[in-house]
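Task card 7
Instruction: Convert sequence to structure tokens.
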Amino acid sequence: MPPVPLEALQPAEGRPKGVGSAPAETAVAGATRGAAALRWVLCLPIALSGAWAARTALKVIVTFGPDDMLAANAFVSHLRVTTVSDGAMGVAFVYLGALVAPAHRRRVGSILGVLALLVSGAAVLARLLQHDSWAAFAAACTAVGAGGTAYAIHVGRIGLDGGVPRSIFSASRSGR
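Output:
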């Protein structure tokens, strides 16, 4: 049985017309449910497209940035581009997916983190079997970014509800 709204318990003459009435509450609840369902449906596509966009944008920025001219060789430049762009891809995947979810954001962040770790682990294994060490390193960077973000969301270091996240210097670590 759903909880009774507070307005329904107050006398009718003290309420404005339409407040607490069944059709108005049903319309609001239906719109809220529809928006929540849409956010659940869009959670994974937004996480995937945001991760791809973050990787692409950072790859362009880091590749053509001013520090690229200072790199002594191509190895250092490629290492920096791969580490930053693919690590950010894992971060963006978990963070955006958890941010779009209408409820249970910590749990969604953890699930997306585990999903990213499984896919990245399979990619590392597949690339190592094909002797493609750069792709395996890129997948490992994605796994580190996704796993670190999922952990930070889970323990409350990254706030998703608009509140202030707990400080890393907080005295109490038991309050979750």
